[in-house]
Amino acid sequence: MMGLGGLLGRVLDRPLSLGRAAPDDRAIADLCKALLTEAGEATGLSLAKTILARYASLDDEEKRDFFMTLARDMDVNAGAVHQTIDAYDSDPTRDTYRAYAAASEPPRQELIRRLNRVPGATARLVAMRADLLRLTDLSGRLGALDQDFRHLFSSWFNRGFLVLSPIDWRSPALILEKIIAYEAVHDIAGWDDLRRRLQPADRRCYGFFHPAMPDEPLIFVEVALTRGIPGSVQRLLSDKRDPITADEADTAVFYSISNCQSGLAGISFGNSLIKQVVEDLGRDLKGLKTFVTLSPIPGFMKWLGDQDVSADLSEPDTLRRLTATYLLDAKRGQGPLDPVARFHLGNGALVHAVHAEADISEKGRKQSAGAMVNYLYDPDRLAQNHEALATHGTIASSASVRSLAGAGRRLL
Amino acid sequence: MMGLGGLLGRVLDRPLSLGRAAPDDRAIADLCKALLTEAGEATGLSLAKTILARYASLDDEEKRDFFMTLARDMDVNAGAVHQTIDAYDSDPTRDTYRAYAAASEPPRQELIRRLNRVPGATARLVAMRADLLRLTDLSGRLGALDQDFRHLFSSWFNRGFLVLSPIDWRSPALILEKIIAYEAVHDIAGWDDLRRRLQPADRRCYGFFHPAMPDEPLIFVEVALTRGIPGSVQRLLSDKRDPITADEADTAVFYSISNCQSGLAGISFGNSLIKQVVEDLGRDLKGLKTFVTLSPIPGFMKWLGDQDVSADLSEPDTLRRLTATYLLDAKRGQGPLDPVARFHLGNGALVHAVHAEADISEKGRKQSAGAMVNYLYDPDRLAQNHEALATHGTIASSASVRSLAGAGRRLL
Amino acid sequence: MMGLGGLLGRVLDRPLSLGRAAPDDRAIADLCKALLTEAGEATGLSLAKTILARYASLDDEEKRDFFMTLARDMDVNAGAVHQTIDAYDSDPTRDTYRAYAAASEPPRQELIRRLNRVPGATARLVAMRADLLRLTDLSGRLGALDQDFRHLFSSWFNRGFLVLSPIDWRSPALILEKIIAYEAVHDIAGWDDLRRRLQPADRRCYGFFHPAMPDEPLIFVEVALTRGIPGSVQRLLSDKRDPITADEADTAVFYSISNCQSGLAGISFGNSLIKQVVEDLGRDLKGLKTFVTLSPIPGFMKWLGDQDVSADLSEPDTLRRLTATYLLDAKRGQGPLDPVARFHLGNGALVHAVHAEADISEKGRKQSAGAMVNYLYDPDRLAQNHEALATHGTIASSASVRSLAGAGRRLL
Amino acid sequence: MMGLGGLLGRVLDRPLSLGRAAPDDRAIADLCKALLTEAGEATGLSLAKTILARYASLDDEEKRDFFMTLARDMDVNAGAVHQTIDAYDSDPTRDTYRAYAAASEPPRQELIRRLNRVPGATARLVAMRADLLRLTDLSGRLGALDQDFRHLFSSWFNRGFLVLSPIDWRSPALILEKIIAYEAVHDIAGWDDLRRRLQPADRRCYGFFHPAMPDEPLIFVEVALTRGIPGSVQRLLSDKRDPITADEADTAVFYSISNCQSGLAGISFGNSLIKQVVEDLGRDLKGLKTFVTLSPIPGFMKWLGDQDVSADLSEPDTLRRLTATYLLDAKRGQGPLDPVARFHLGNGALVHAVHAEADISEKGRKQSAGAMVNYLYDPDRLAQNHEALATHGTIASSASVRSLAGAGRRLL
Q1: Which structural domain, as residue segments, surrounds residue B198?
Q2: pLDDT tens digits, residue range A122-179?
Q3: Continuous H helices in B244-381
């Protein structure tokens, strides 16, 4: 946390001001072209700063125009691609490859890389893509531009560059206010509520950060340390519970995982985050034997509505049977239909248990009649579960869930 | 320094060990193919670790074979390129672009990105390219592979991701021993000599670091704070001088700049480094008015040998005239012939003064008869000097150097 | 902040657990005696921990008993003092002095020092003295015990051991919630209000910390950067103002200073804090020319009530005259009567200006009819102002305040 | 390490410069008196700085004079002590105690506390006491002055204020060069030798630091991680050994412990250091079962010379028997005669094993004919071993050592 929120932040945030460029009244598109053609980094940095500042002052309509310019005027040149790939194919040398590599990539990728040279630019480029996603229709040419952003971000936000950092009550307020803002699963009502999630001895929170955006969590997961696997999120989060010490816990419960950056859509961090946290917790707390989620089942009620069935969901056994059936049987392609199931099972977890009366909030009742599910992360079985799902569409589950699902099938 | 050598280092270095993979006796090429085809990150990380470990155990011959496999079997597919660029060109949509993007990039780039997901992998991949440069002939296909490494590294080691850090006598010994090892201009004889370069109040050192390689400086520059512009490196470095306080200095002298990573060849950091240091020093020490180098002239004697001239180089005026002429007149393309001049003038510096008896070491005598040169970094003129050189081949210089060069021309 | 809230904290907080002492059911007074007589640190640390834990479980009555035991049973032995000082006086050697030093100090001082060996004990001992101050009458023997605490704390919390740290929106929430709790002058309503005091570019906050209590600010001062000297705290704190950049400011306004630890009563930090902040700000922001407070005048209305005068305080000029007279004329001993004036003038500041309608809060109206005062900290005059006050009772002031005070005298 | 060498260091080292005092040409003794009488901290800090600077410029003779002045002119006043202790004894109140407390302490203690307010002063005061110890005869009055220093330092360097920090190859060179300089047991020949002690996976080093002297280790211990208990320091330190990983180790060997500050003589850190390191290592490396020293026996040969015995010490069994006898039987008071034994047995360790041919250096041969001893630190028995030694003079030992000692006795 320190290294990020503190030291690095101060180093990286410091804006360059070499060269004292005169105000530049060229159009932003012209500035971008100039940035690509002028070789010098002196001019380049100053140009890049001007472009980023100019972009920040655009309104939504002007941003759309700017994106369209990038999409159209800085696209790949098909003729050059044909020509250079032929040259390389017939005579594969360093020089023919260099020509091909230059031609095959649209110039806007190099533009984005050059903009990124400005200290602090990475967060602005992520915000730029968030604008693109928010403001435009991506099915056409602009989808190609988005693809370029995504390609670059995927390389820059490579797992090897991310830093896992605990987030706790010692973390900078600057970071914590973002945790309040970004929590997507179980709302955090304010600073007192946040403290209840972070400060007790049986709570943990971890986030991924990128060194060039030290004040911005990319994704974070909230963890409860418990004895036994919990079946109710309200009980789990109750401030009336007696917190246990970390050493007393045998189970780590991932009860909320939230992405923070809409501009990084499509770049997946959750899998790595959970696995890294499982590993770190397991090393630090030798008493932990079980790593499990307490997850919503957001697609259940909608799916049930599509089935021709009348069932009394206030009856816990009925509800548990039907959710088990939903989780094991309802598919989209080879994977599970439920989006949360898709994520955890795709990571190699298995469906471990289902609970009724587990989330009695309005949202919980609405999406799953109050039911929740534990996905179990067993380090020794993650790879094979994942493999079985990817190859054969097999959904891993516990014997008791399979039995419930069988009973549920008979209700349909 | 702290953030890097310390906190981040500990976070990033921690190796993942999820999944406890059984020893894998497939060939390294097969492992690489598996890494590209299997989707799962669980398996992926473990595979990537296996590949990196396997690579580390190869001998030079096997490394050559491995590189050739990457170059040949993971190359771009010309047919797919033709087909997908046509599809995109006739119907530019997100989907046609995605297909093109996938086809236009050789699979080995994705392989390198996936290898990089392992914590600590970046330094290994840089070392892998160093092997490639050391072991192979790059004129053919292997040059294409090298181009891919360089392309990725250029994106990963973008200026926006680098951290400028002071290096001083409080820095970790782990870093300092590398400064001793990498110093390329004026040898550092050992720890005592190093202390003389770092600890006195009139010495500074700065390096660029990448957060994923916190123990490895990428490039560093050594600075002396002086009153007036020095004309002798031996006097500048003499341990008999009386150090001045930083506040007394009016001049910052860049007397040595060293690249550290042969695996990052072709990715230029020096320009950014010097400019950032000029800016930081100028902000922290208000008394500094002049930023200047004290640089070798490595190509002078060779050039002079090619001229048809007999001159008494032990005569200081003669030597200064001829070096001035060399620096202003001897060209390669539009740029100066001398490699050090090429670097500084390309950055926008100008030839400010030349000195005889300035480097009386054996190396100094041999390459330039003991002459050295000051290149002046004037923040207000960097952009225009650079521009004039890039556009017209104009080499910026002081009036006195131009006058010397004129006198030197008459000696030729 | 980092070093304190973070690294040091973690190192220092780690509790020792060597020796695994069996539960000890002796009375706390007996444990204390044992701690003083048993030489061994192994036993000692464990005993000290037991004592601190036992103390924490006492109720107020039991704490009073415990304090009385310390006061009575661990007091200085007059006979031994007489005897050892005579021996030293007649034969001043190392050995006679050692005997005297041992006899002259009550054993409870050594007890407190031994308790302090336990990591984290310092904060507990400070809290113990806060209990003493809260629960007991200090005029008798318990006052002697309090004197011993104060003597030790005065040595431990010596200025040379304190760390000045900026407190800002990057500080740990753990620290920030204490700033909200301890603010004593102008209430902070919650986290949003706190952010308004910390985050804008024209706000600063600094606190003193002790390395052994890294999570506890000892005292903090809130600073506003302004153009010109402000005359209204409501305008100064208004969230409708346009924040200026730090470079635009010419004045630093200390508008609130709060002690945090009641257990450190009588140990003065404020003087050092203000002077250090004046120095640090002056070095970092070259534009700052004026360092001034905007202070309440808490004793004014009470003093005025004791004068035989009827004046219309809603008339700004009348109010300003009378407050000036109060500040310059009303004395307690040689010093000013007003407690805030006493503090700042004692530090060497001078009465620079008085303002009506400056604090229109209920509290402000009640204590000073809304008037406030600026005390000016002029680094070049602090020593002589202080000296003149200490020696001659001279209160330093500006000419305009003296003139107002003269006019005020005529109203009395 | 970071927090100390880095952050804190920078905060604490920053010198105050408020008040810009004119050069003060009073004698140092007069300056000291002024510091005690003038109340103001503004003047006080500046005075204290002047005094410290003046002291630094004194030659040895002048330092002796200065110490004598402190000893004589700032001594305790016997008359005042008699009078105030009587007043307190007959009427124990806060006020009578305050008067007694003021009179019973010599004014030089308050002088030293006021000098310590200057940032960075603590290290200078420690050096001042080192001068006192080096330059003067302490048997008389100067011994009283030394006692005052020791009393204050004992309070300031309380275990609760010390920070245990690992020292490794990432530590600042500034710290590491002091490790080379201060190593007292087995010389470190230079930086390469130091690296061999710090960098391998089976080596550790820890030191105590005080936050106000972050660049100065107070004491440090060097540790080797081994399989089994070693019997030869040359083999232990051999750079030809194959380092094991930390996880493979079952034993931690404390093979060198060095005090660094002669000015802190008589203030014991070693006991706390070893116990804290035992605890930390035991928590971090679960495989460690045995904590043991490999210690010299510096008094053996001298003791043996005093016995009337002729024995062939080149015979390993003979040597081991006699060293066992020496360690168990040779006493000074209740404790062991051997100084190293005194230290470890006083800490609660026991004599575990003795080895011949264990230190074949010249020094090792000379002081103990090459023999060494393992003292075992068993956390569960430290308190009782210590107790038995302190109460009954019982030296704890293993059965095998007792048996050797028995055999040895028969040789005498």
Answers
A1: 160-293
A2: 999 999 999 999 999 998 999 999 999 999 999 999 999 999 999 999 999 999 999 9
A3: 270-284, 300-306, 316-329, 339-347, 362-368
